[in-house]
Design goal:
The protein has about 170 residues and is mainly alpha-helical. The chain has a single domain, classed as Arp2/3 complex 21 kDa subunit ARPC3 (Orthogonal Bundle). The chain is about 75% helix and about 0% strand. It is built from six helices and no strands. The longest helix has 29 residues. The radius of gyration is 16 Å and the shape is globular.
Length: about 170
């Protein structure tokens, strides 16, 4: 597939990720615990990581968190989303690139979700300057594993579908 087609498909995927991100902001998961979300928009960059490679995945993640952050209009939410999303996809890209240990899509998704929450947690530490929130990382990690499995499963089947129809691109 040529570069122009990859960029075009990536732009469509970025729009999908933005739509998922905005739609998910209306689902009240914070009733369970503050800051908890499924992270469905993270399916898109994870899928692109496997289908087109890290440059496309990281680019789409950057576009998604930037545009969704602008649409929400909250700088704190933007910072959490930006640092969490970018740390997650960057580290997942580095892990996928190394050849010593290979993770499944679901395994990499769980790692990405935990990294995402850890980056958001450290962003909160910097913003709040309060070490009393350390206990909350355990709560976030439990939900990160659950969300990581779910987004990993969705990515796994999306990747299979895209590979099946890739000759049509």
């Amino acid at each position: 597939m040529n570069r122009t087609k990859k960029i075009t498909i990536s732009a469509i995927f970025a729009a999908l990720a933005i739509a998922l991100s905005v739609a998910e902001s209306f689902i009240p998961f914070s009733a369970i615990a503050p800051g908890v979300k499924l992270g469905l928009a993270n399916v898109v960059p994870l899928t692109l990581l496997y289908v087109f490679g890290p440059a496309y995945a990281i680019s789409v993640q950057a576009v998604r968190v930037s545009v969704a952050g602008l649409l929400r209009g909250n700088i704190v939410t933007f910072l959490f989303s930006f640092f969490g999303g970018m740390a997650s996809i960057t580290i997942c890209s580095l892990i996928k690139r190394q050849k010593r240990v290979e993770f499944s899509v679901i395994g990499l998704s769980v790692i990405g979700a935990v990294i995402h929450n850890a980056a958001q947690f450290f962003t909160a530490l910097v913003i709040l300057k309060n070490l009393n929130i350390f206990w909350y990382i355990a709560v976030l990690t439990i939900f990160a594993v659950i969300a990581g499995v779910l987004t990993g499963l969705i990515s796994k089947y999306t990747i299979k579908a895209l590979e099946r129809y890739s000759n049509r691109f």
